[in-house]
Amino acid sequence: MYKGLLHLHHWMPFLWFLLILVVLVQNFLVWKSDREFTASLKRQNTITIVLTHIQVTVGLIMLATAIITGMLPDMGTLMGDTALRFKYVEHPATMLLGAVLLTIGNAKSKRQEAAKNKAKIVVIWFGIGLLLIAFRFPWEAFLQGA
To answer: Where are the domains of the chain?
Structure first.
């Protein structure tokens, strides 16, 4: 089961990155032009949030499995080793924070009346969330394979 979760957690970001870039561009165009905030765009924003939540949930299940099965070393060793600290502390914490920012942005945009305001909020919150996620993303493992 762990191996299946690992593969899902590795391959889903390909789809997620593509989708969030499309969503950001489309929301930016609505914000800066006279385009409408369509139901399709709202649906794409929601799908982005759902994929983010699935990805974070799978990652947290993997982290809990590692903790429960004793795959982690003691805290002193964990915090002293840069690679282990990144994998088990920095990466999960930053991804969780990024997902929270995306979720807040999506919720705030739903409360707005004007299309430009909805799109502006999505661009700002999703953009900050994407930057956080990209900052602590394991790019080497992502590009080489799981």
So the answer is: 2-31+41-144
pTM exceeds 0.85? yes
Q: Which two tokens stand for residue 15?
A: 């789809």
Closest CA to 106 of 11, 15, 37: 37
pLDDT digits over 57-106, tens only?
A: 999 999 999 889 988 888 888 899 898 899 899 999 999 999 999 999 99
Write the DSSP symbol of residue 116: H
Count of H helices and E strands in the chain?
7, 0
| Helix 39-68 and helix 2-32, axial crossing angle in degrees, nearest 10 | 150
CB 64 within 8 A of CB 92: no
